[in-house]
Amino acid sequence: MNEERLQKVIAHAGVASRRKAEELIAKGHVKVNGEVVKELGTKVTPNDEVKVDEVPISKEAPVYYLLYKPRGVITAVTDDKHRKTVVDILEEVPERIYPVGRLDYDTSGLLLLTNDGDLDNKLTHPKYEVEKTYVAKVKGIVTNDDLKHLRTGVVIEHRKTAKAKTKLIRTNKDSSIVQLTIHEGRNHQVKNMFEKIGHPVEKLSRETYGFLTLKGLQPGDYRPLKPHEVEELKELTGKTNR
């Protein structure tokens, strides 16, 4: 009989990403056949009853959405401060979806949401190097030397960032508009990179995720991914049936 790791089963059911599922298990939120399980190596079969916070999980068909996240919205499923979340925007979607990675509260732009735990896990893993392009309005006049530092990498929390791609779009009297493409996903990475070179971010938007763009969307709009887009995302991470 097929056995799978508990966190993978929870992720496949669209309850949470695999990493979040591991947190739920470790904190005692998960029961298997009526017993609380905290061991991450636990394997279950299709005949086992799995509950998260006393709610039985059921495997849903995978769905994939692209959202133009507005500023002032939390990248989360729920928020204990009762702020609007990205999942609230997609409230008409019947499946239990969650965001792939995150965008800060005051950052807008392209965000993926899904219930495919495997794909989420791979898209957010740095080894697959999925490129993301941001456009930032930053304080001060950015120089070529500043851009060179970003391209070669800056040290943040004792670790150097990977090489980036940069483009100076324009400068104003006391600010600059810069395009930055990275494939890492550390917390607040883009803001920290600009802070490191002395140009704090005033406004930030993620314009692309891999080959996906915001074309045709306004802040707050969303759409399901097309089948060929889903396949291409899977190919980016080596997760494809072809």
UniProtKB/TrEMBL annotation:
Residues 4-67 form the RNA-binding S4 domain. It is an enzyme of class 5 (isomerase). CDD domains: PseudoU_synth_RsuA_like, S4. One of its GO terms (molecular function) is RNA binding. Its EC number is 5.4.99.-. GO terms for biological process: enzyme-directed rRNA pseudouridine synthesis. Keywords: Isomerase, RNA-binding. GO terms for cellular component: cytosol. Pfam families: PseudoU_synth_2, S4. It comes from the Bacteria. NCBIfam families: pseudouridine synthase (TIGR00093). Belongs to the pseudouridine synthase RsuA family. This is Pseudouridine synthase. It comes from Lentilactobacillus buchneri DSM 20057. The lineage of its organism: Bacteria, Bacillati, Bacillota, Bacilli, Lactobacillales.
